[in-house]
Specification:
alpha/beta; Rossmann fold; 6-stranded mixed beta sheet; 3-stranded antiparallel beta sheet; 38% helix; binds adenosine-5'-triphosphate; binds magnesium ion
Length: 249
Amino acid sequence: MEILVDIKNLSKKYKDAPRPAVNDISFIIEKGSVFGLLGPNGAGKTTLISMLCGLFSQNEGTISINGKTHQSNSKECKQMIGVVPQEIALYPKLTAWENLMFLGHMYGIKTSELKERVTKNLSILGLHENTHQKIITYSGGMKRRVNLIAGLLHNPQLLILDEPTVGVDVQSKQAIIEYLKNLNTELGMTILYTSHHLEEAEDFCSHIAIIDDGKLITQGKTKQLISENDCKSIEEVYLKITGSKFRDK
Ligand SMILES: Nc1ncnc2c1ncn2[C@@H]1O[C@H](COP(=O)(O)OP(=O)(O)OP(=O)(O)O)[C@@H](O)[C@H]1O
Ligand SMILES: [Mg+2]
């Protein structure tokens, strides 16, 4: 087992907030795994992954990615990580092609290589015919799929996705999950994803961590978590451990 991400005693308290959004969390992410970070609204998922992406720094604790930290190896860390944010981060008046070519050039990918990757990814995600349409004309599910491609054009070792399947129909949801599964099995890309959907996470993730109110409640291999707790599903594990339902359901 090789460790890709090592998070130790991580805490973050926003200015003027009554309590920490992330409170003394530690876990590791193995290379090649699909790691699900689950928890209800306000649990601290986005705060935690924002620190992992280097968007802002923690108050306490350390994050190391392949032994490197954002504080001392900012450029290397950025190259290793791909981020698909919770909000759509595309220019609405540009086409999918223009958006992706622009972002790819920012990553420093050669034009010929970039054209190939953009064409291939749009086609895998069923957007070939919409390549030269403006994003503003896309449906929510189509935007999500382009948003996804935008995060991985530079072939990151670690792909971080913040609720990639929220607000999309069943077809888009399935296309997104299948696509991610392929990236994991075929390219060995390590994936960290946050979600409220316990069933989807159970099917998709090799490892799961559940956080609530800034704290880590439980973590482990998906199957092991279920059997150790003598449960039939991750949802049952969650209910058994917290004794309460997800607040957003
Ligand atoms: N920029 C901010 N300033 C102050 N408080 C914040 C900020 N961002 C988040 N919070 C607070 O920190 C806590 C954790 O929020 P966070 O967005 O990390 O949760 P989340 O698990 O991603 O929730 P969701 O499922 O709704 O996306 C919440 O109490 C939230 O109100
Ligand atoms: Mg969030």
